[in-house]
Amino acid sequence: MSLIELKEVSKIYSMGKGSIEVRALKGVDLAVDEGEFVSIMGQSGSGKSTLLNIVGCLDKPTSGEYWLDGCLVGSLGSDELAEVRNKIMGFVFQSFNLLPKLTAVGNVELPLVYAGVHPRIRREEAIRALDMVGLADRASHRPNELSGGQQQRVAIARALVSNPRVVLADEPTGNLDTKSSYEIMDILADMNKRGITVVIVTHDPDIAAYTPRVLTFRDGECIEDVRALEGV
Fold it and tell me: Are 168 and 156 in contact (CB under 8 A)?
C-alpha cells in the first residue's frame, strides 16, 4: 500500500464572482511509497503547488480521493486534519516563514508548542533538530542575523522536530544562491536516507535531478513520471 495515493483528484478554483473557473488539477492519479524522494516539476500555473497543498492537507480536492497511509483524508474532521499536519507532515516553504522576533531555536520549537510538549523537552528536541542541519551554534540567533541558506536550514529543522513521516518542500531553494541550494538539497537527501518521505516542488531541473523520481506537471496534469535506474 502506498503512503500517499491520489485517485482522479481534480481541483477547481472560482475566480472573481465565480463566473470563471480555473482547473488547477485535472483527474490526477499518483502514488508515493514510504521512503521515496520525489520532485514535482512544472512552470507557474502547472498545478504543482496545488497538488502539494492537497497532499499536505492544507487544501481539499474538488473531486477525487486522497488516501494517506490507508486513511481517506476527505473523511477526517478539522481536528483530525490538524493532527495529521502536526504529527505526520513537516513543511518547508520558499519564504522560510520564520517568526522574526523568535530565535532559531524558538522557531524550531513552534510545532512542539502547539503539540503541548513540555518546555524542557521541546528545547532539547529543537536543539537536536538544529544540530541535524548544522546550526546548533546559531540557536540563539534571530532570522535577521542569519543568511538565507541558514534561515532555510532553520525551517527544515522546524519541519524535522516533530519526527514527521513526510516532509513537503515548496520551492525550498527558490530564494537561495546556487551553493546554498545544493546544501539544502544535501540536507533533504540525508533526511530521506533516514527514512523520511520527501516531496519537493521545483521549477529547476538541476534541483529535481537530486531526486530518484521526477514528476512533470503541465496544465494540471502529470505528463511524465521518470524514475532513475538503480545503480546508475
Answer: no
CA distance 223 to 26: 11
How many Å separate Cα 41 from the centre of its chain? 14
> Hey, how many other C-beta atoms are within 10 angstroms of the C-beta on 85?
18
Q: How far apart are CA 141 and CA 82, in angstroms?
A: 29
Ordered by where they begin, the domains of the chain are: 34-60+77-227 (3.40.50.300)
CA 86-91-93 angle, 5° bins? 150
| Cell numbers for 134 | 548544522
Instruction: Report the residue count for the chain.
Output: 232
For the segment 47-58, what is each residue's pLDDT rounded down to a tens digit?
999 999 999 999
Closest CA to 184 of 228, 135, 229, 220: 135
pTM, full prediction:
0.91
The pLDDT value recorded for residue 229 is 63
Identify the residue whose cell numbers are 523520481.
213
At 61-81, the pLDDT tens digits run 999 999 999 999 999 998 899
